[in-house]
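Dear support,

I submitted the protein below through the web form. The confirmation email said the job was done, but the results page showed an empty box. After a refresh the structure appeared. I'm attaching both so you can tell me whether what I see now is the final result or a partial one.
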Amino acid sequence: MSKTEHQTQAQVKGAESKAAPSGPRPSKPALPPSIIALAGGVVAAGAVAGFLLLGGGGETAGTVERPALNLVKTSAIDKAAETLVPEEKDKIVAQAKACTAPLGNMRLSKMTANAGGVVRIRSGNYLSPAFNVAEGPINIAVPFPAPYEVGKGEIVVEGAAKDVFFELTPGLKVDTTGGVQRIPVIWNTRKPCGG
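What the results page shows now:
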Protein backbone atom coordinates (compact mmCIF):
# COMPACT_ATOMS: atom_id res chain seq x y z
CA MET A 1 0.00 0.00 0.00
CA SER A 2 1.42 3.37 -0.96
CA LYS A 3 1.76 6.24 1.40
CA THR A 4 -1.06 8.14 -0.35
CA GLU A 5 -3.48 5.20 -0.07
CA HIS A 6 -2.60 4.82 3.56
CA GLN A 7 -3.29 8.48 4.25
CA THR A 8 -6.62 8.29 2.37
CA GLN A 9 -7.77 5.29 4.44
CA ALA A 10 -6.75 7.07 7.63
CA GLN A 11 -8.79 10.14 6.61
CA VAL A 12 -11.85 8.02 5.81
CA LYS A 13 -11.64 6.21 9.19
CA GLY A 14 -11.26 9.54 10.97
CA ALA A 15 -14.32 10.97 9.24
CA GLU A 16 -16.37 7.84 10.07
CA SER A 17 -15.42 8.04 13.73
CA LYS A 18 -16.49 11.71 13.88
CA ALA A 19 -19.83 10.94 12.21
CA ALA A 20 -20.63 7.99 14.46
CA PRO A 21 -22.28 8.89 17.75
CA SER A 22 -20.00 8.50 20.69
CA GLY A 23 -22.80 7.55 23.11
CA PRO A 24 -26.53 7.88 23.68
CA ARG A 25 -28.01 11.10 22.37
CA PRO A 26 -29.78 13.36 24.81
CA SER A 27 -33.57 13.07 24.38
CA LYS A 28 -35.72 16.07 23.48
CA PRO A 29 -37.16 17.83 26.48
CA ALA A 30 -40.78 16.72 27.18
CA LEU A 31 -43.62 19.20 26.63
CA PRO A 32 -44.88 20.82 29.80
CA PRO A 33 -48.18 19.31 31.04
CA SER A 34 -49.92 22.69 30.68
CA ILE A 35 -49.19 22.75 26.92
CA ILE A 36 -50.48 19.18 26.54
CA ALA A 37 -53.66 20.02 28.47
CA LEU A 38 -54.22 23.19 26.42
CA ALA A 39 -53.81 21.32 23.13
CA GLY A 40 -56.19 18.60 24.32
CA GLY A 41 -58.77 21.20 25.32
CA VAL A 42 -58.61 22.89 21.92
CA VAL A 43 -59.07 19.56 20.12
CA ALA A 44 -62.02 18.61 22.37
CA ALA A 45 -63.70 22.00 21.92
CA GLY A 46 -63.34 21.72 18.16
CA ALA A 47 -64.88 18.25 18.18
CA VAL A 48 -67.86 19.41 20.25
CA ALA A 49 -68.43 22.46 18.03
CA GLY A 50 -68.24 20.30 14.91
CA PHE A 51 -70.78 17.86 16.32
CA LEU A 52 -73.20 20.63 17.24
CA LEU A 53 -72.96 22.30 13.85
CA LEU A 54 -73.05 19.17 11.72
CA GLY A 55 -75.25 16.83 13.68
CA GLY A 56 -77.24 18.85 16.14
CA GLY A 57 -79.55 21.17 14.23
CA GLY A 58 -77.25 23.89 12.94
CA GLU A 59 -78.20 27.45 13.83
CA THR A 60 -80.11 27.85 17.04
CA ALA A 61 -79.86 31.56 17.81
CA GLY A 62 -82.00 33.88 15.75
CA THR A 63 -80.61 36.93 13.99
CA VAL A 64 -82.21 40.01 12.42
CA GLU A 65 -81.86 38.37 8.98
CA ARG A 66 -83.17 34.99 10.17
CA PRO A 67 -85.11 35.18 13.46
CA ALA A 68 -85.91 32.09 15.52
CA LEU A 69 -89.42 30.63 15.62
CA ASN A 70 -90.07 29.47 19.18
CA LEU A 71 -91.83 26.31 20.28
CA VAL A 72 -95.18 26.09 21.97
CA LYS A 73 -94.52 24.22 25.22
CA THR A 74 -96.41 20.96 25.69
CA SER A 75 -98.36 22.44 28.61
CA ALA A 76 -99.57 25.32 26.39
CA ILE A 77 -100.67 23.37 23.29
CA ASP A 78 -104.42 23.41 24.10
CA LYS A 79 -104.43 27.18 24.69
CA ALA A 80 -102.34 27.82 21.56
CA ALA A 81 -104.64 25.61 19.47
CA GLU A 82 -107.40 28.24 19.78
CA THR A 83 -105.64 30.21 17.02
CA LEU A 84 -105.47 27.31 14.53
CA VAL A 85 -107.77 26.79 11.54
CA PRO A 86 -110.72 24.74 12.91
CA GLU A 87 -110.61 22.16 10.07
CA GLU A 88 -106.98 21.25 10.81
CA LYS A 89 -106.90 21.86 14.55
CA ASP A 90 -107.42 18.27 15.80
CA LYS A 91 -104.75 16.79 13.53
CA ILE A 92 -102.19 19.52 14.32
CA VAL A 93 -102.80 19.28 18.07
CA ALA A 94 -102.48 15.46 18.05
CA GLN A 95 -99.13 15.71 16.21
CA ALA A 96 -97.85 18.40 18.59
CA LYS A 97 -98.80 16.39 21.68
CA ALA A 98 -97.11 13.30 20.21
CA CYS A 99 -93.95 15.40 19.58
CA THR A 100 -93.95 14.45 15.89
CA ALA A 101 -94.76 17.92 14.52
CA PRO A 102 -94.43 20.60 17.20
CA LEU A 103 -96.11 23.99 17.01
CA GLY A 104 -94.30 27.29 16.63
CA ASN A 105 -95.54 30.49 18.21
CA MET A 106 -95.31 34.20 17.62
CA ARG A 107 -96.99 37.36 18.87
CA LEU A 108 -98.32 40.26 16.82
CA SER A 109 -98.89 43.75 18.18
CA LYS A 110 -99.23 47.33 16.97
CA MET A 111 -96.15 49.53 17.01
CA THR A 112 -97.99 52.87 16.93
CA ALA A 113 -101.53 54.16 17.47
CA ASN A 114 -102.21 54.23 13.70
CA ALA A 115 -100.73 50.79 13.08
CA GLY A 116 -102.55 47.50 12.65
CA GLY A 117 -104.58 45.67 10.06
CA VAL A 118 -105.58 42.16 9.11
CA VAL A 119 -102.99 39.45 8.49
CA ARG A 120 -102.78 35.74 7.78
CA ILE A 121 -99.69 33.62 8.36
CA ARG A 122 -98.58 31.07 5.79
CA SER A 123 -96.25 28.42 7.22
CA GLY A 124 -95.43 25.69 4.73
CA ASN A 125 -98.78 24.37 3.44
CA TYR A 126 -100.68 25.82 6.40
CA LEU A 127 -102.60 29.12 6.13
CA SER A 128 -103.84 30.63 9.39
CA PRO A 129 -107.19 32.31 9.94
CA ALA A 130 -107.23 36.09 9.48
CA PHE A 131 -106.16 38.04 12.58
CA ASN A 132 -107.08 41.67 13.17
CA VAL A 133 -104.14 43.35 14.87
CA ALA A 134 -105.98 46.06 16.75
CA GLU A 135 -105.51 46.76 20.46
CA GLY A 136 -103.61 44.16 22.49
CA PRO A 137 -101.02 41.65 21.35
CA ILE A 138 -102.21 38.43 19.67
CA ASN A 139 -100.46 35.11 20.32
CA ILE A 140 -100.55 32.84 17.27
CA ALA A 141 -99.58 29.18 16.90
CA VAL A 142 -98.62 27.68 13.54
CA PRO A 143 -97.06 24.41 12.40
CA PHE A 144 -93.39 24.77 11.49
CA PRO A 145 -92.93 25.75 7.82
CA ALA A 146 -90.69 22.74 7.06
CA PRO A 147 -90.14 19.34 8.67
CA TYR A 148 -89.05 20.03 12.24
CA GLU A 149 -85.69 18.25 11.91
CA VAL A 150 -84.66 20.60 9.07
CA GLY A 151 -84.39 23.56 11.48
CA LYS A 152 -85.18 26.32 8.98
CA GLY A 153 -87.93 27.52 6.69
CA GLU A 154 -89.99 30.56 5.73
CA ILE A 155 -93.02 32.29 7.23
CA VAL A 156 -95.09 34.46 4.88
CA VAL A 157 -97.26 37.27 6.23
CA GLU A 158 -100.23 38.09 3.97
CA GLY A 159 -102.95 40.71 4.23
CA ALA A 160 -103.05 44.46 4.75
CA ALA A 161 -101.17 45.53 7.85
CA LYS A 162 -98.92 48.45 8.67
CA ASP A 163 -96.31 48.83 11.41
CA VAL A 164 -97.06 45.54 13.14
CA PHE A 165 -94.45 44.09 15.48
CA PHE A 166 -93.92 40.42 14.67
CA GLU A 167 -92.43 38.88 17.80
CA LEU A 168 -89.94 36.15 16.99
CA THR A 169 -86.42 36.01 18.43
CA PRO A 170 -85.51 38.77 17.68
CA GLY A 171 -88.70 40.53 16.62
CA LEU A 172 -89.20 42.62 13.50
CA LYS A 173 -91.52 45.17 11.94
CA VAL A 174 -94.02 43.85 9.39
CA ASP A 175 -95.66 45.99 6.70
CA THR A 176 -97.79 44.17 4.12
CA THR A 177 -99.38 47.23 2.51
CA GLY A 178 -97.10 46.69 -0.49
CA GLY A 179 -97.68 42.92 -0.70
CA VAL A 180 -96.67 39.83 1.24
CA GLN A 181 -93.66 39.81 3.54
CA ARG A 182 -91.43 36.74 3.57
CA ILE A 183 -89.51 35.99 6.75
CA PRO A 184 -86.81 33.28 6.74
CA VAL A 185 -86.78 31.61 10.17
CA ILE A 186 -84.78 29.01 12.08
CA TRP A 187 -85.56 26.88 15.15
CA ASN A 188 -83.77 24.68 17.63
CA THR A 189 -84.33 21.04 16.63
CA ARG A 190 -83.03 19.62 19.92
CA LYS A 191 -86.27 20.26 21.84
CA PRO A 192 -89.13 18.72 19.83
CA CYS A 193 -91.59 18.86 22.74
CA GLY A 194 -90.93 22.45 23.70
CA GLY A 195 -88.54 21.35 26.46
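Response: this is the final, complete result; the empty box was a page-load delay. The helical segments are 3-19, 33-55, 77-80, 86-97.
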